[in-house]
Amino acid sequence: MEVLFWLGLIVIFLIIEAVTVGLATIWFAVGALAAMLAALLGGGIFLQILLFFLVSLVLLFYTRPVALKYFSDSKLRTNYENTIGKTVKITERVDNISGTGTAVLNGQEWTARMQKDDMIMEKGAQAKVAEVKGVKLILTPLEEDLQS
Q1: CA–CA separation, 122 vs 84, rounded Å?
Q2: How confident is the model at residue 141 (pLDDT cuts 50, 70, 90)?
Q3: pLDDT tens, residue by residue, 67-81
Q4: Cα(91)–Cα(111) distance, integer angstroms
Q5: Cβ atoms 104, 87 nearer than 8 A
Q6: Number of neighbouring beta carbons within 10 Å of residue 91
Q7: Which helix (H) or strand (E) is 121 found in, with range?
Q8: For residue 2, which of 52, 54, 55 has the smallest C-alpha distance?
């Protein structure tokens, strides 16, 4: 009976892992496998529970960081926080009312908007990144390039 319980837990943990694909429950499935093996070998319920928790926690704390490092490369880290405060060059007139504007930051062209709608910046001017909203740079003018 205990073997079926552990087998059921293994199946449940594997289904959750397959649905979430986040390396969340695989460790507990392996812990349940260790407990099931103990049950098959005639170990008592205390030993089974102890093995379940020990194996699960050891795997969780010692192998999860390594697994996340090698299997979670699909996440794109943009480090957009590093762009705030940087100076950019305007490559197309930035006019919020017209909905136009692009700027180059670190060699990449971004859609650009001004922080205040009544501000306009011309091509060739430089501005400072005040914030990033989605894929748009929100800019503030450098004083010498300000036009209203």
Answers
A1: 21
A2: confident
A3: 767 665 555 555 666
A4: 10
A5: no
A6: 15
A7: strand 120-121
A8: 52
For the cut 80, the answer to whether the pLDDT of residue 24 exceeds it is no
Burial of 66: CB neighbours in 10 Å, binned 0-12, 13-18, 19+? exposed
Residue whose tokens read 């205390």: 46
pTM of the model: 0.48
Cα–Cα–Cα angle for 85, 91, 93, rounded to 5 degrees? 95
Output the pLDDT for position 139.
95
Could you tell me which residue, 33 or 22, shows the higher pLDDT?
Answer: 33
Distances (CA, A) of 58 to 8, 26, 51, 62: 22, 12, 10, 6
Residue whose token pair is 């694909």: 21
State the Cα–Cα distance between residues 34 and 59, nearest whole angstrom: 12
Query: 36 burial class (0-12, 13-18, 19+ CB within 10 angstroms)?
Result: buried
**Residue 2: what pLDDT?**
92
